Amino acid sequence: MGKIVKGNTKMEEYKYSAKFYDPLLFPFIRPIRNKVIALVKQYHYKSILDVCCGTGDQLKLLKQHGFDGEGIDLSDAMLSVAGKGEHKADCIHQDATQMHYENAKFDLVMTAFSLHEKSHASARKIVEEMVRVTSEGGDILIVDYELSEKTSTLSKILIYFIEWLAGGEHYRNFKSYVKKGGLPELLSGITLTTEVERHYFGKYGIVLLLLRKEKV
Ligand SMILES: C[S@@+](CC[C@H](N)C(=O)[O-])C[C@H]1O[C@@H](n2cnc3c(N)ncnc32)[C@H](O)[C@@H]1O
Fold it and tell me: Tell me: the pLDDT tens digits for 154-176?
């Protein structure tokens, strides 16, 4: 079966990889997931949204630590994994570029490893939507690649290899994301937010950014 295309999003991209996603990426991603937990504990968020939540791995870990959150994703295969296991994640099928939530609904709106694989226009729309549904004084957390002269060569090779394996439009969008300047470029011109914290992982290949939505 070919890929089902809705808007500019390929809905079946993760059809075959969803089951292997967590076991394969666990060693690389777990320190980042743990840092998110630490930040949630530090800032006492009451309502949490995970945008493009995938397998719901972060939400499941949050649940294990006693924090409730909800997620949205477009892949039925990923959502099916999210709904399984001891700590089922509360994830629904929804497009991150046009969320159904009212303005300022959540204290923390996060997304991890989702922006680099989108077209620039879609990634930008997702960030704008994240800001819209974040409460004033609430936080936006973004985890994604940031390749710079500080990034180790091994990390660069590994990241390019993983993205090359994903292939097709995903890989083209990743290359374009890197060429354009990654997150700093994508976030330029996003108003009403200030940086609160930043942490690097994977020998400076991955950044976690915590932004605060200003009160107006
Ligand atoms: C690389 S996965 C990241 C999953 C998860 N955030 C994590 O940290 O493991 C990217 C996810 O974005 C989802 N996605 C892509 N476009 C989307 C959209 N427009 N709205 C919601 N989810 C989307 C994909 O289905 C996929 O599950």
Answer: 999 999 999 999 999 999 999 99
Task: Pick from 13, 52, 59, 125 the residue to mutate for probing ligand 1's pocket: most ligand atoms within 8 Å of its CB.
Answer: 52
> What gap in Å lies between CA 213 and CA 108, rounded to an integer?
10
Choices 3.30.450.40, 3.40.50.300, 3.40.190.10, 3.40.50.150: CATH for 5-213? 3.40.50.150
| pTM value surpassing 0.90 | yes
Cα–Cα dist 69/79, whole Å: 15
Distance 29 CA to ligand 1 centre (A): 15
Q: Is 75 in the pocket of ligand 1 (CB under 6 A)?
A: yes
